[in-house]
Design goal:
Layout (H helix, E strand, L loop, with lengths): L1 E14 L2 E6 L2 E7 L6 H13 L3 E2 L5 E3 L7 E6 L21 H17 L3 E4 L7 E15 L4
Parallel strand pairs: 3-6, 6-7
Antiparallel strand pairs: 1-2, 1-3, 1-8, 4-5
Helix pairs in contact: 1-2
Length: about 150
């Protein structure tokens, strides 16, 4: 699975001008299931994200995790993280998981965050969404479960 984690002061996601998910201090997580991904990769990604030390301690060093700060998460499905631009300028998405599988992995990932005690809200899988955020730092981390 792939994810982009943004440290935020707040974030929200809307569909047709209606907020469907939001969080305060914590992380906006854009997540993409790839075609060969499994449940265990969703679990591995959730565990890693809860422990990444990207939040400042009292000495202003990035030494605290999402769990340490009791932060919240807003999780958005983002199949475009699977973009392949090897053959020109128009991205291909053939490496993204099929929608049914991707939705299952996306929902499982969000439920794993909740199991770790992270207050978690989501967007609506497969919908056109508008995402607003106040980035903190900014701090943005890209992860791929194939790399850890």
């Amino acid at each position: 699975m792939r994810a982009v984690i943004q440290r935020v002061k707040s974030a929200s996601v809307s569909i047709s001008d209606q907020i469907v998910g939001e969080c305060e201090i914590g992380a906006l997580i854009l997540v993409c299931a790839m075609k060969n991904d499994t449940i265990s990769q969703a679990e591995k990604l959730a565990k890693k994200i809860t422990k990444i030390r990207i939040y400042q301690d009292e000495d202003h060093k990035m030494n605290r995790s999402l769990m340490d700060i009791n932060g919240a998460a807003l999780v958005i499905s983002q199949f475009t993280l699977a973009a392949d631009l090897k053959r020109g300028n128009r991205p291909g998405f053939s490496e993204a998981a099929e929608p049914e599988k991707a939705k299952h992995l996306y929902n499982h990932f969000a439920s794993c965050l909740k199991q770790y005690g992270i207050s978690t809200q989501t967007g609506e899988f497969g919908s056109e969404m508008a995402v607003k955020l106040i980035n903190d730092g900014p701090v943005t981390i890209c992860l791929d479960t194939d790399q850890f």
